[in-house]
Structures are given as structure tokens and as C-alpha cells.
Queue: 2 jobs
Job 1
Amino acid sequence: MLAAYAAATNADDPLAVLEISGRPDPDPPEGWTTVEVRAASLNHHDLWSLRGVGLPDDRLPMILGCDAAGVDADGNEVIVHSVIATDDWRGDETLDPKRTLLSELHQGALAERVAVPRRNLVPKPDALSFEQAACLPTAWLTAYRMLFTKAGVQPGDTVLIQGASGGVASAAIVLARHAGLRVWVTSRDEAKREKALALGAHAAFESGARLPERVDAVMETVGEATWKHSLRSLRPGGTIVVSGSTSGQAPSAELQRVFFLQLNIVGSTMGTREELAQLARLCETTGIRPEIDRVLPLAEARDGFAALAAGDVFGKIVFTP
Ligand SMILES: NC(=O)c1ccc[n+]([C@@H]2O[C@H](COP(=O)([O-])OP(=O)(O)OC[C@H]3O[C@@H](n4cnc5c(N)ncnc54)[C@H](OP(=O)(O)O)[C@@H]3O)[C@@H](O)[C@H]2O)c1
């Protein structure tokens, strides 16, 4: 079957080790099933994998991709929950210390077929296309959990979303707007700020700009480049939810500011199967849909990877096998 995979890893030149060619069909173990992939979406995670982050050499070659929507062996339209917990784990899968995402230990979703545990399948609402549904399992689920499980915000609160154009960030804009929050965003790029406003942000600022007032919560995925601004933008007692560190992971912790202003710094990773099911229902009932930057045939996946690596994206890139 056709697949996009890491043949090796390369910290400096991830695209050099990306291969798009034939790989063996999945051979699902007991309790797993095979999904015919109709659409799969790209995440920054896939670039990290090509760089060797979380992907040691002994797991290569590894088919990339955390996110898929498709048809299961019984003909049901499904969304794949990417968090693979160990067999005997019960409860919140993201808290299993041995959990992995598709493409970390088990072959990933950028392929014609993917094997997953049966319990990881979530019904796809008819109202969502396969392309839209394929955007939900990583970026959208992460944004959903950050906002609604971790941030402790209420309708009417103000939330700042750093790096507006990212997959997680653009999802957070749409979700936060529909939840009745006042949505402020930052982006380095004027055109991306305009798009963020069109997507539902109430105000868009240059990265690092002083805000008119302090916010109740910050959604942080950019990391080092925006961390100082996140800390300075937060009201006393406010919450930063952090789920990514694209630009670096060692900013000054500014401990004095953290304790003096009693700031909450909360980590967040992916979401549970139940949260994914709730997110799908939310999209169905509200009519909100993932912002898709472009849809490409899987055979042309290299163009999508290059665009993501260059930051030349707003929303999600989707591949169809
Ligand atoms: N913990 C989890 O479960 C989880 C899940 C999903 C993603 N993540 C992580 O979260 C991060 C974002 O993921 P994504 O898929 O949304 O990535 P993405 O689509 O590539 O977005 C990256 C964003 O970061 C901003 N950015 C990058 N470098 C920057 C810099 N030097 N200064 C300021 N802004 C910068 C860009 O914003 P502008 O160009 O608009 O300024 C861009 O919107 C990644 O590190 C990813 O690994 C974690």
C-alpha cells in the first residue's frame, strides 16, 4: 500500500528522510482492526518524528501520521483516536505513562490502511466529510482539552491564543469563539492575523505586542518565542495551558512572577477517546468545521510537509490516499 514514512531520521533536514512509496499492509493483532483510510491529516508531530524526536532508529521504517478518518472492517465510518494506551489501562488514556500516539510505536495513518485497537474507533458524524473528520484527532482534540478540560475558563472570559495560524491554534480560535469566550490571538504575520479574525478571533496582535488588558487564560503551543509574553499577558490567578514548544522549550521560568501573581501553568496532551467523541458531536451540533489549508493526494504529501516546515500554512493539511 502507498504510505508516507520515515526511512531514517534527520534532525536538520527532516524532508530528506521522508519516503512516499509502498509499505506492507497492516497485520492487526488480537483486539485491533484495520481502517481503510479515506483522509489523514498532517501535524507538526510528523516533522518532529522525521527529526528523530520520539522516534528511535530501532522503530524505523515508521509510517507517519497520527490522524485518520475512514471505514472500518464492518463498513462503519470512523474517526481514529490516536492515543494508544496499554491493554490493561483503564480511565484517561493520556495519563497512561506507556501510552503512545500512532506513528510512535505502531505504524501511522499516512497510508491507505492503518491498524488500531477497536476501542480507539469513534463514530464519524455523517455531517462531517472524511477530510474534516481527519483533522480532529490531534490538533482539534488537543485544542478542545486545553480549553474545556484544562483552562477553567467560563463564557465571557478572555483567552489569548499564541501563534494563530497553527493547527492547534486555529482549532482553538474556532472552539473558543463558539464557547462564548473573548478570543485574542497573536501571529507574526499580518495576513495570518487577518485570517484569524475571519475565523472568529475578536482581536489579533503582532507576536509580543502589549495587550489592552490582561487575559484569563493563554493557550500556548509556540513555546520559548512566546512564553515571556504569555506570562506577562496573564491576570493574577490566570492559567497558561501549554501543549507544545515548537520554537524551543527552555525559556526563563520567571518563578517570581509565577508565585507572586499566583499563575497556574498547566500541561495538556491530546485528549481521551470520550473527549474526541464529544468534539465530533460538538462539530455536528454547532456546524463548526476544521479550517483546511489544502487537500493533497497522499502521493504528493511531500508538498504538504514542505509547506508545514516553511510555516506556509493556515489550518490543516489533509492527504487522501
Ligand atoms: N501535547 C500534544 O498533545 C500536542 C498536540 C498537538 C500539537 N502539539 C505540539 O504543539 C505545537 C504546535 O503544533 P501544530 O500542529 O499546531 O503546529 P503548526 O501548525 O506547525 O503551528 C506552529 C505555530 O507556531 C507558531 N510559531 C512557530 N515558530 C514560531 C516562532 N519562532 N515565533 C512565534 N511563533 C512561532 C506559528 O505561528 P504564526 O506563524 O501564526 O506566528 C505557527 O502557527 C507543536 O510543537 C506540536 O508538536 C502537541
Job 2
Amino acid sequence: MLSTSVVTFNSSFVDQVNALSHEQTQLCYHCHKCTAGCPVSAEMTYGPDRILRMIHLGQKDAVLASPDIWICLACETCGARCPNDIDIAHVMDALRQIARAEGVRPGQPRVALFHDIFVTVIRFTGQMHEATLLGLYKVLSGDLFSDLVVGGRLFLKGKIPVLPKISRPGNMLAQVFRKSK
Ligand code: SF4
Ligand code: SF4
């Protein structure tokens, strides 16, 4: 006798992701071309095409808690390969936004921490300042000693300026942050 399992279809999650990403994820027919070309799919738990399938099945909790949405590099290789023009980088970005807004614990806490520090530094200085970014990341992650040699070499070559250049208020980035609120 065949066993059956019931999958609950939660269409509101698909709608939420589509609205935020401006993509039509339901056009995916799971050809796997996105995952085959993704440079970090080997590090992911599911890979981009399975993430889309889980969205279609309404598996919201599993998708938002997965490390994949934080591992994605937003390189857009998947979008370039997709025969249906689905830009999964936009979908992954929407999933990160939903996860953050709904207080879901990140599947890759360090990547999420780096992401938050990156945005905070840009918000307050108007541009990236690597020394602040790296210093805050090292302290807040507790990972004080990895990559010290590489970081030291970059510093000695002047690639990590000590003082940030603060952009004037009213610059384009400040406007972006204001509008995104
Ligand atoms: S390449 Fe496009 S259609 Fe194919 S599995 Fe990926 S998202 Fe779906
Ligand atoms: S955008 Fe993300 S999911 Fe798509 S190929 Fe790049 S890393 Fe992979």
C-alpha cells in the first residue's frame, strides 16, 4: 500500500517573496541550471532551485532559517543562467529581509553579523571604512586572531586606511537609507 504525506501549501509566503523581490518565482520549472552554476552551492544545504521549491511549498520556517540565504553571494550567476529570467539574487535578498524583519535566527550568524556591521558603517560614514568594519567584526564575533597575517599585510600596504572619510549628510547613500525606512 502506498504511503501518502500531506504538504500544506502556504501561498501567502510565495506572494510575500514575489512582492518583495519583484520576481515571479512560480515560473521556475526546476531545470537546476541555477544550482549547477552557483559558485557556492556546494556550501549550501539546499541550493537555489530547492529554495525556490520550498518557497512554492510554503516551507517558510525552513527557508528563513536555512544558511543558504546568508551564504548566497548575490553574484547573479543564477539569474544569468535561468531560462525564465528569475533573478534568485533578488529572491535571496528578499528572504534575508523577511528573516530579519521577523526575528529569525540566521542560519549563518557570522555572515549576518558581517552584513549588519557593513550596513551600519556605511550608514554612519557614507562609505565603507574597512578598519572599522574589521575591528567591529573581530570584537563582536569573538574571532580575534584569524586572518591577522593577511590583514597586517594589507594594512602595511596602505589598503586599510586608519581614519574614515565621512561623507556629508545629504549624499546619495543617506537618501537611500532615508527612503528605505
Ligand atoms: S534556472 Fe530558473 S527555472 Fe531553472 S531551476 Fe533555477 S530558477 Fe528554476
Ligand atoms: S546569486 Fe547567490 S544563489 Fe545565485 S549563483 Fe550567486 S551565490 Fe548562487
